[in-house]
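input
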Amino acid sequence: MEYGILCVLPVFTILVIAVTTKRTLFAMVCGLAMASLILGGVKGFANAFFDNVYASFNNESLQWLLIVIALFGVLIMLYEKTGAVTDFGFWASKFIKTKKASLFGTFILGVIIFIDDYLNNLAVGTTMKGITDKLGIPRQQLAYVVNTVAAPVCLLIPLSSWAVYFATLMGDQGVEIGGSSMTAYIHGLPFAFYAWFAIIVCLLQIIGIIPKIGPMKKAYQRYESLGDVFPEGTDPELVESVKASHEIEVNEKAHPWNFLLPLIVMIVLSLISDVLMGAAGGVIVAFAMYFIEKKMTFKELLTTCFDGAMSMGFVFVLSVLAFAVQNANIELGLAEYVISITEPIMQGGFLPAAVFIVCGIYAYATGCFWDLAAIIIPIVIPLANAMGVDPILASAAVFSGAAFGSNTCLYGDGVIMCAQGCQIKSLDLMTTTLPYAAIAGGGSVIAYLIAGFAL
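output
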């Protein structure tokens, strides 16, 4: 059954309600309810609603993600309860003494942790928030840098999970150089314009060449007037607990290893195996270290692990709803509808720019990034070949659109992970990021127009 323009209503509902109420979970439930009403009608509404929730739980990607989230929650709680984060902050403050230095440090750490955007978004925010808080940097600024670096860096470094997946998709469509799809992917990296522009805009914003815009400007004004690094509406208990941690007397003998060793193990294992094994390894190493050092008793460590997993409850629910909405969008045929109305403009030299715009809008609206590439690559590459457009350039436009969505989608996994790591709401991160992502996106459209006609 074709639903036409009705398939856009759930996404529209989510965005409108999220912005007006500032309640992301409520907005997601409303969006899912709208999709269920369209799919099942009044009589079949309940069945359609719970069918999508069941489908979400049955999704292997979600199951994997929930385990990773739980492990990250455990590690973060172990860090906080044993004072590992505080000690790292004391140690790092000896070298990082200015706002710009802390933001550059955040940027560089994001580049170093290039393996996977989940790991990047959670680990970097967790590492740097204590340092940036003390220097008076709003959490929205920190989250913007963390999130903006995560997906683009994963896209631009061929050793990441993103690169392996996207290169495989290119190979499935016969796009290879010397028999290697990864070589073709690497040749396409100069054309991943959004990733390059997003990183450049981020650096220019840190330096101050690009000014503070919109919500970012308001965040700094809020700090200047109230001394509060958190967005308006943040849980007062969280704010008070963070302020209390800042008042702890500086430990001159503090060392970083209780914090860094589990993180290093996590990165190495993620590179050798995958992020799930990396997160598990990091937790095991942290648990063993803190027990041997008598930071906590065995029973206290077990309780902390449980509390850490439970602290991710909001993210669990939000992730389940996000996957349920994605499933509903698939049933509604949102991807097919978007492609059908935009395919006429995917012509000749306009193809790369049109592909980037379509993919960016679709990724921003749906929260699907890897799924997006799997759906659109088999359509775009034959179109590019038929029109004499370089298929590597067209593929890079798809991947750039996916990165744009990862940076900006309210209920995308990248934004959810980053918001959790920086302890702010996904909506605050999205609204802060959008103006800068729009600058990078606008530059990308121009670059793809030029490249489309030049090549």
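quick obs: The longest helix spans residues 426-454.
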